[in-house]
């Protein structure tokens, strides 16, 4: 079960993180060896599954995630899709390298009801020495319906 960092001191140092491949890094968050970032707790989602080239986050939007019209804010969809797609890229980043999102795009296909449990799935299309490309989707756990899609490009940088 993933645990969440409660302060910056809880996160791995860059030197410790660089000793792990991206897949090892993500697996260590999933199994609780290393803490995950607090954004998941803030936004109501957690890492659910990790394999090479694929990551799943599970969560549900709460009232705190709504816009002035009372519907789920587009930023919630974007945050989840950015997390899943970028972390999918991370699973293919070698030891001694880091990555970050360069750009991402989302398409919201239908509104999510508050409290509805979803899976946000990120899958890599390509990860090379300097770029990673991935796509993602948000689907209802119970109904299987597609609620949003996304795509991303990440930069991969060798540090050591």
Automatic annotation (TrEMBL):
Residue stretches making up the Thioesterase domain: 69-144
Keywords on record: Hydrolase
CDD domains: PaaI_thioesterase
Segment forming the signal sequence: none
Chain segments annotated as transmembrane: none
GO molecular function, one term: fatty acyl-CoA hydrolase activity
Pfam families referenced in this protein's UniProt entry, alphabetically: 4HBT (PF03061)
Record family assignment: Belongs to the thioesterase PaaI family.
Protein's UniProt name: Uncharacterized domain 1-containing protein
